[in-house]
Write a structure and sequence with these properties.
- The protein is built from two helices and no strands.
- It has one domain.
- With 59 residues, the protein is mostly helical.
- Helix content is 39%, strand content 0%.
- The longest helix has 13 residues, at 7-19.
Length: 59
């Protein structure tokens, strides 16, 4: 998940990740003030993805 991705892009990238058994992550791609106004914490991902990351790390 990325702040610039459309719903169509999200679905396509999710399908690729599932096809190749990849973990899905997300973020704002924040580079600080004065760049883009999408700040850290503004891009939301489904909590299921957080759980998948934790499971992969065995946490």
């Amino acid at each position: 998940y990325h702040s610039d991705h459309s719903l169509k892009n999200e679905k396509a990238f999710k399908a690729l990740a599932e096809k190749y058994n990849l973990l899905i992550t997300g973020g704002s791609d924040c580079h600080g003030f004065g760049k883009r106004e999408v700040l850290i914490g503004k891009v939301k991902i489904p909590y299921e993805l957080v759980e998948n990351l934790k499971k992969a790390l065995r946490l």
